Amino acid sequence: MALPSLSTLRSLAVTDHLDLVAPPVAAALAAWPHAAETAVVEIDPAIADTAAMSEAYSLPLESGANCILVSGRRDGVERIAACMVRADTRLDVNNVVKRLLDVRKASFLPMDRATAESSMEYGGITPVGLPASWRLLVDARVVDIDVTVIGSGVRRSKLLLSGRLLAELPGAEVVEGLASLPTG
After folding, report:
1. Which long-range contacts (CB under 8 A, 24 or more apart) does 45-53 make?
2. Does the pLDDT value for residue 118 go beyond 70?
3. SS3 136
4. Which CATH number fits domain 22-33+43-173: 3.30.70.20, 3.90.960.10, 3.40.50.1400, 3.40.640.10?
5. 173-183, pLDDT tens digit by residue?
């Protein structure tokens, strides 16, 4: 099976290059049956943020998927979700995520908590290898991407895989309308 590839990025078999991903990502990939269908690409860590990377590597913005961590409380219990949305869309935190988490208010997880609790670098957070207690919500638009670019847990690389494989991650829930296209 051919590795996924995109633009000028050099695809490497992630199973042979686990040193290019964060430790929890490597551990999750080692146990994931679709790891052989996933590539890792090295990038300049200074341009790991989606817009800069897309521009630098001539990638269409809609090929990227961002992992956004959101939390809320209900009855004193915190609920956290990792939300995968296409890079050219906006996560509907105030309606859809709030309803799915069944909380009064949903907020983005602060950066220091996001990195500490995921054991990943900001700008590289990925749904692969996140704590099992967190929900994984995947916007249906992401599942339709042939080859998507997602984080690898570190800023110096990214993972390439079919969007449909994100729906195969443990605990993944595909949600219609999790994100919307920006207006204006």
Report:
1. 45/123, 45/154, 45/155, 45/156, 48/123, 48/124, 48/155, 48/156, 48/158, 49/123, 50/87, 51/87, 53/149, 53/158
2. yes
3. strand
4. 3.90.960.10
5. 999 999 998 87
**CA–CA dist 177, 184 (Å, integer):** 18
Which residue has 């099976």 as its token pair? 1
pLDDT at 79 over 70: yes
pLDDT band at 184 (very low <50, low <70, confident <90, very high): low
Coil, strand, or helix at residue 137? strand
Q: Which sequence spans correspond to the domains of the chain?
A: 22-33+43-173
DSSP string, 117-160: HHTS-TT---STT--TTSEEEEEHHHHT-SSEEEE-SSTTEEEE
Helix (H, G, I), strand (E, B) or coil at 29: helix
Tokens of 28: 């999750």
Q: Does residue 1 contact residue 39 with C-beta atoms inside 8 Å?
A: no
